[in-house]
Design brief:
The structure is a homodimer of 155-residue chains. Chain A has eight helices and five strands. Chain A is of the alpha/beta class and 155 residues long. A five-stranded mixed beta sheet of chain A has the order 2-1-3-4-5. In chain A, helix 1 packs parallel to helix 6 and helix 6 crosses helix 7. At the A-B interface, helix 3, helix 4 and helix 8 of A face helix 3, helix 4 and helix 8 of B.
Chain lengths: 155, 155
């Protein structure tokens, strides 16, 4: 099997993030692929669009991929370091490899996943950083809501 | 505030699990409450009913509760020890307390949650054990699918 083109996979997730931004939502996108690069499902955060707090980008892509007997040799690509919720998804379902656009604006559970044997590829993509930076500056409260960061506790 | 009646909260989750069983689905139920016992959302596993692998009982209850600015002082009650996916949900959103029907038929991430400051109440409820034992005996492959347990790797 030829080496996986992680930049090409990230482009799919980034397109999803941009679609989310254009819809007025949280600009995080993700997609699930086979190790051979076949697309299984793609999606973006749908908190705003569907009033659904459970649809982070990764869960949205996972859902779009439908029911599968296992996730051995699948690759989750996401524009942003996965939060604990989405990291838990990866660990529970045994997704083998996570490709991450950036972990500069937010760092979730990817080190924990690496400790548990998940291959992590962090791409430090400037366009992903720009998308999130713009969003967080524009809508900080929406961002804090999406990651369950308590405004009161932040003081 | 009077002490929370964890058995009464579990009864709501168990009703959800029984509804799931009656629908031909995976009999796991959950509900999200305030610390004062107000119901915010309830749900059950919907893998079979909606062909949706992302709707575990806890995510289903979380979704039903709708968008909230934070989850401080909320209680997640579930008939079964939360898997990594659902444990990640609890940690990310800062849910304070998890009430668990049983951890005999499956043990997920509740010790990890306790290490990270989440209050855990394990009730060892025989009806929850019976519901899951019956299901796993009847439909082992469906159960393994729901927790991403790879039949090939199991040998």
């Amino acid at each position: 099997m030829k080496p996986i083109d992680t930049a090409a996979l990230l482009a799919v997730a980034r397109d999803e993030a941009r679609t989310g931004e254009a819809e007025g939502g949280i600009p995080i996108g993700a997609a699930l692929f086979t190790a051979g690069g076949e697309l299984l499902g793609r999606g973006h955060n749908r908190r705003v669009q569907d009033d659904d707090p459970s649809m982070h980008a990764e869960t949205s892509a996972f859902r779009a991929a439908g029911r599968r007997p296992h996730y051995r040799d699948t690759v989750m690509v996401t524009t942003l370091s996965p939060c604990w919720y989405c990291s838990g998804l990866v660990r529970q379902f045994g997704i083998s490899h996570v490709v991450i656009g950036e972990a500069t604006t937010f760092s979730g559970g990817h080190d924990w996943l690496a400790e548990h044997g998940v291959r992590i590829t962090l791409l430090d993509d400037p366009e992903c950083v720009e998308l999130m930076s713009r969003f967080i500056e524009r809508s900080p409260e929406l961002w804090f809501e999406d990651i369950g960061s308590d405004a009161t506790a932040r003081g």
